[in-house]
């Protein structure tokens, strides 16, 4: 596996290799890699001639400084995992490489996606995500970009970004990888104490209660049940929402042919976790 730090070096390597390869896949990450990240890489490798992973803990997407400072970093182990998984190139830029001129910040018109759910609770977060992904798209020009359904709203934001940039990159959304007790894998899980870790599957439990409950109860009632499960597990709730899967606008009536998704964001001891479940396609 090649490890490249400078964007210019990566662009050069890509343009040299593209003569022999038709497709380049990109898996952007913030590191502290787990099986969820590696499943994206597997998907990428099975469809693309060159698999590129990036690790960049993007300061621009953290609206909370403490969260940024406490974000787990394990570059050496990540390199080992990527190498073992057959990654071709790891892009490991630093902040100056990604943002050489901090005074030049572009605003992306994300419309309502910027102010609902994650956008509401993490102001500026998606602008930061878009700045980093735009740079990755420019440097790597991937055929496909692999993302996890775990960050459902982020997937919609990046689809919108690709449209705004008139990019040809295809966005591939891969299913959420879970621990055996249902907890969605997340780098943030590393920060949970043993006691908190035991309570954390309440998120997935609450999502399943919503899915099951919606067969006979209304949205308001199942949301109440989900909230009570989360509170009993000591979660502070940001949102429990049932929404249209394409727009993320809340729905009160799920008897529609549209895709419906349930989404939760909640914190346990200030460790904020998110998860979602498709109610119907
Ligand atoms: P992160 O490093 O948290 O920014 O995540 C990098 C990519 O991995 C994003 O596209 C995430 O949606 C995806 N991802 C994170 N956790 C999981 C998971 N449990 N299953 C599948 N994909 C995931």
What does this structure look like?
There is one protein chain. The chain is of the alpha/beta class and 281 residues long. Helix content is 38%, strand content 20%. The chain is built from eleven helices and nine strands. It has helices at 7-17, 35-47, 65-69, 75-84, 95-98, 118-121, 125-140, 152-164, 194-199, 202-213, 219-232, and strands at 2-4, 24-29, 50-55, 89-91, 144-148, 170-174, 236-244, 260-268, 271-280. It has a six-stranded parallel β-sheet with strand order 1-4-3-2-5-6, sandwiched between helices. A three-stranded antiparallel β-sheet has the order 7-8-9, covered by helices on one side. Helix 7 (125-140) packs across helix 8 (152-164) and helix 10 (202-213) packs antiparallel against helix 11 (219-232). It starts with a strand and ends with a strand. The mean pLDDT is 96. The chain binds adenosine monophosphate (AMP). Adenosine monophosphate binds at residues 29-30, 36-37, 39-40, 147-148, 150-151, 174, 176-177, 184-187.
């Amino acid at each position: 596996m090649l490890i490249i730090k400078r964007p210019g070096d990566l662009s050069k390597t890509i343009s040299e290799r593209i003569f022999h390869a038709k497709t380049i896949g990109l898996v952007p990450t913030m590191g502290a890699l787990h099986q969820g990240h590696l499943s994206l890489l597997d998907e990428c490798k099975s469809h693309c001639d060159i698999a590129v992973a990036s690790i960049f803990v993007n300061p621009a997407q953290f609206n909370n400084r403490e969260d940024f400072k406490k974000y787990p970093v394990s570059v050496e182990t990540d390199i080992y995992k990527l190498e073992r998984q057959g990654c071709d190139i790891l892009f490991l830029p630093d902040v100056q490489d990604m943002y050489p001129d901090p005074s030049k910040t572009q605003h992306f018109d994300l419309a309502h996606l910027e102010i609902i759910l994650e956008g509401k609770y993490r102001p500026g977060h998606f602008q930061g995500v878009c700045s980093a992904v735009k740079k990755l798209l420019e440097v790597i020009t991937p055929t496909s970009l692999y993302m996890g359904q775990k960050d459902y709203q982020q997937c919609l934001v990046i689809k919108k970004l690709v449209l705004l940039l008139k990019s040809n990159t295809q966005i591939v959304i891969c299913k959420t990888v879970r621990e055996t007790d249902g907890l969605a894998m997340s780098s943030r899980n590393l920060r949970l104490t043993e006691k908190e870790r035991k309570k954390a599957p309440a998120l997935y439990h609450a999502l399943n209660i919503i899915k099951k409950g919606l067969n006979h109860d209304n949205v308001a009632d199942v949301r109440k049940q989900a909230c009570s499960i989360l509170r009993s597990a000591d979660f502070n709730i940001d949102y429990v929402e049932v929404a249209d899967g394409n727009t993320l606008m809340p729905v009160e009536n799920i008897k529609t042919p549209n895709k419906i998704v349930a989404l939760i964001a909640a914190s346990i001891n200030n460790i904020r976790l998110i998860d979602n479940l498709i109610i119907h396609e």
